[in-house]
Amino acid sequence: MYSTPPSTLEEQARERREKLEQQHSVGANLKKLVRVFWWSSLTALLIAGPFALWYTGKAEKWYAVAEVEAIRLSAEFGMTVKNIEVRGREKTDPEALLAAIGQKPGTPIVTFDVDAARERIEQLSWVRNAVVERRLPNTLIVSISERQPVALWQTDHGHTVIDADGAQLQDYELGDYLDLPVVVGADAPEHASEMLTTLKSIPRLFDMVSGAQRIGNRRWNIQLSNGMFIRLPEENMDKAWARLDQLDQEHHILSRDVLIVDLRLPDRTFVRLTPGAAEQRRNPPKKGNAA
Prior knowledge:
By secondary structure, the protein is of the alpha/beta class. The chain is built from eight helices and eleven strands. The protein has helices spanning 9-56, 59-76, 94-101, 114-121, 188-200, 203-206, 237-251, 275-282; strands at residues 83-87, 127-135, 139-146, 149-155, 158-163, 182-184, 209-215, 219-224, 229-231, 258-262, 270-273. Helix 1 (9-56) packs antiparallel against helix 2 (59-76). It starts with 8 loop residues before the first helix and ends in a 9-residue tail after the last helix. Keywords: Cell cycle, Cell division, Cell inner membrane, Cell membrane, Membrane, Transmembrane, Transmembrane helix. This is Cell division protein FtsQ. It is a single-pass type II membrane protein.
């Protein structure tokens, strides 16, 4: 059938535009159709697949095929790691953390083992616990809770920063933690938290504490910044510490020439004077002696 050609250039241009628009519309719809087809196929595979595999008795073979296909499709649809979002990090080394996460941008996010990553991250000395999550389509979220330094553990090899659980921290500048109390003793790290909690219950006394020594794996001797030693009992440490506070408020014992305050017995307190004060008490100056 013969059609009369357009009479003007404007009509020819209009016809070309209409044809291009139709072609573009068809192409776009085709892409949408393909995308819907793939997602529908993937959904159907995930829902109906287990039953079909069980029914045919070829579960192992078809599961492997389905897994590979699902990973390939997820990558095609942009479900690859593009962002790693870290929350809660202050002291943890960023490079060590990234290595522990173990996932590089561009790999399929559906294959990432969040439990294995969490276990690796929690091996880092500063990390107390961690949570690793996927946020589809392309983001990993890593939330960590870091350990809080509470004391310096002194050994023959030097000083080590420890937290409330007694964990020994790594990768730090020792000079940043010289204001922490020093604890001494083989089992001091495991028991430091309870002792420090007791001492902190009376802030004005805790401000005077410079260190603590674990004695016989049973109890603590506390050293104050004025050089005085406080011997605490194995049990009821909190009551003994409160008794020291009362003694100081009533008798100003912490301002006297005292070397040791022994609070190990619940019903009495023993005090040892400094060598100078003890000597003066043994040989008091005689009255009336002229220089």
